[in-house]
TrEMBL record:
Native species: Buddleja alternifolia
The protein's name: Alliinase C-terminal domain-containing protein
Keyword field contains Transferase: yes
Keyword annotations: Aminotransferase, Pyridoxal phosphate, Transferase
Annotated Alliinase C-terminal domain residues: 25-384
UniProt cross-references to InterPro entries, sorted A to Z: Alliinase_C (IPR006948), Alliinase_N_sf (IPR037029), Ethylene_sulfur-biosynth (IPR050478), PyrdxlP-dep_Trfase (IPR015424), PyrdxlP-dep_Trfase_major (IPR015421), PyrdxlP-dep_Trfase_small (IPR015422)
């Protein structure tokens, strides 16, 4: 008995030592480095060379309402939406921003009433993207203020509702939840791409839709997003916000992004030129499918956690029928563990607590988009976590 106690003790010490030596795995941010390998395999096909004399002017297209939008980038955006079928672009205004983060602020400015006696409430159903409350309130605007969980919003007053679909953090498809008719809706469709979820047979056609290269192609560092807007006055005011805050958006970024979006579309529409490369959304779909399988296996093994289940849908873009495989895992610590973030931090896995998303700390959000080796280390470590 003593010997087996000693063995158990030695084994436990070995585990603790391994844990102490183990590297920290940071999955707190949704940094999309997973996409690096695909673009690396493209070699020079997406390389953009810009001579020093080019693109000196502030202006891109003086005939466009959004005069700092590069026509090449605008065309590439339209081509991509036509290819995927995820959003209507005909008779719509496109406004470019430094990431959709910039556009989110531009929209708040553009849609808030200017003559109201108090700031308009900005709400979103919990769990909501953790940056929304921070961005809404950090400058203490007199125009708008964070109003919290949209499901709890019962005031009979004007409001702005953010509808994120698929949602960050839990990956579910969403509809507006406030049941009043004087609301302004903003649809954040950052993840409405066929590697994450099935694309519906009718393209999204909301008043204000936000997209970003960060989560579509993975080029978060390019810092580019675009808004598709129905109403001319709103598009004008958003443009005004961007002019006042940054006098436009980097042309170098837009040209690089234009090239990447064109090549992406070419991988689907001109397969013959890409014998060595898979089409972008096939590659990224397969990668996400493998990662979700690997994650679900690890969760199954450990028995301490649970994940959301998603219903199957037929994707009008790929023809595949599949359940969503979101960019984040919304993981719940089952049993006694009340603070899932610190529990995982103890195992050197950094995640973001549910409390930042207006939810219980029994949940954490975990990025599914790191490089391969980090994701493998993560699932390995997760599957080994048990009650000991
Ligand atoms: N909206 C949602 C729902 C997001 O998850 C993110 C990125 N985490 C953004 C907007 C911001 O993206 P960008 O990099 O374009 O600023």
């Amino acid at each position: 008995k003593n010997a087996s106690n000693r063995d158990a003790h030695v084994a436990k010490r070995a585990i603790l030592e391994t844990q102490a030596l183990a590297e920290v795995i940071d999955l707190d941010h949704g940094d999309p480095t997973m996409y690096e390998q695909y673009w690396q395999q493209m070699g020079d096909k997406t390389t953009v060379v810009i001579p020093g004399w080019k693109f000196i002017s502030y202006f891109s297209d003086v005939n466009n309402l959004c005069w700092f939008l590069e026509p090449e980038f605008a065309n590439a955006i339209i081509r991509l939406h036509k290819l995927v079928g995820n959003a209507v672009t005909e008779d719509r205004y496109i406004v470019v921003g430094t990431g959709s983060t910039h556009l989110f602020q531009a929209v708040l400015y553009a849609v808030s009433p200017t003559n109201a006696s108090e700031p308009i409430n900005v709400v979103s159903a919990a769990p909501f993207y953790s940056s929304y409350p921070l961005i809404t309130d950090f400058l203490k605007s007199g125009l708008y203020k964070w109003g919290g969980d949209a499901r709890e919003f019962k005031k009979n007053k004007p409001y702005i509702e953010l509808v994120t679909s698929p949602n960050n953090p839990d990956g579910l498809s969403r509809e507006p939840v406030v049941n009043q008719n004087h609301g302004i809706l903003i649809h954040d469709l950052a993840y409405y791409w066929p590697q994450y979820t099935s694309i519906s047979s009718s393209p999204a056609d909301h008043d204000i839709m936000l997209f970003t290269v960060s989560k579509s192609t993975g080029h978060a560092g390019t810092r580019l997003g675009w808004a598709i807007v129905k109403n001319q006055e709103i598009a004008k005011k958003m443009t005004e916000y961007i002019v006042l805050s940054t006098i436009g958006v980097s042309k170098e970024s837009q040209l690089r992004a234009a090239k990447i979006l064109q090549v992406l579309a070419d991988t689907h529409e001109h397969r013959n030129n890409f014998k060595e490369n898979e089409a972008f959304f096939d590659h990224s779909y397969n990668l996400m499918a493998r990662r979700w399988k690997q994650l679900r296996d690890a969760v199954e093994k450990s028995k301490l956690f649970s994940l959301p289940e998603f219903i199957h849908g037929k994707c009008a873009f790929s023809g595949r029928t599949f359940a969503s495989q979101p960019a984040f895992a919304w993981l719940k610590c089952e049993g006694e563990t009340e603070d899932c973030e610190s529990f995982l931090r103890h195992h050197k896995i950094l995640t973001r607590s549910g409390k930042h998303f207006g939810e219980s700390p029994q949940y954490v959000r975990i990025s599914i988009l790191p490089r391969d080796e980090i994701f493998d280390q993560f699932t390995d470590r997760l599957s080994g976590i048990n009650f000991s």
